Fold this sequence. Notes:
Helices cover 56% and strands 11% of the residues. By secondary structure, it is an alpha+beta fold.
Amino acid sequence: MTAGSTDRLVDEHTILQVVVGSRAFGLATTGSDTDRRGVYALPAAAFWPLTKPATHHEGPLPEQLRWEVERVCVLGLAANPNVLEVLHSPLVETCTPLGAELRDLTPAFLSRRVADTYLRYATAQFAKAERGIERSGAPVWRHVMHLIRLLTAGGHLVRTGELVLDVGDDRDRLLALKAGELPWDEVMRWRELLTDRLVAGLEHSPLPVEPDTDRVDRWLVSVRRRSVRGLA
């Protein structure tokens, strides 16, 4: 299958596309990219041959990435931050009836797993940033900013059960961090504070211990069945 035909196939079966990144986080500045993420639900027949379709597709627009719906379900149940942000972004460009069903299913993906996922990712990436300091004297400040943003959002999610993408009152300080204007010691104190809050929030978190895997599984099966019947 050619790149063009794959683009058309994914376009035809896209059920949800949103804008994430700086524009959804309230961090956009002049020249910011528009990061598009989405979900496509391929017809069931696409999975019958030995050669299976790809679980994700990049393009054709710049900064555009879409996942096949089964992959979204797997990643969402694992509390993948990127997928959860797609399901919560307020900047919706495309949403079919199936896309609306997926958005309505969002609570089924949320669980206390988010604490482990967010913390493990932040820990690994901060270690990478520190290696950058050792090599070149400075980390990639843009990446560090997004780690702090992620910890902030994760902590709020654990405490309230709500994932909020917009950084609100933290915007100016985060942009100063992105510009490399904050001392590394201050960044580390900020990180430790957010980490402590996230961990402490687990004790009384409204989130369930585990996601509702059965509910997600039933929905995915229904999507495939409707595809076979020509109803989706």
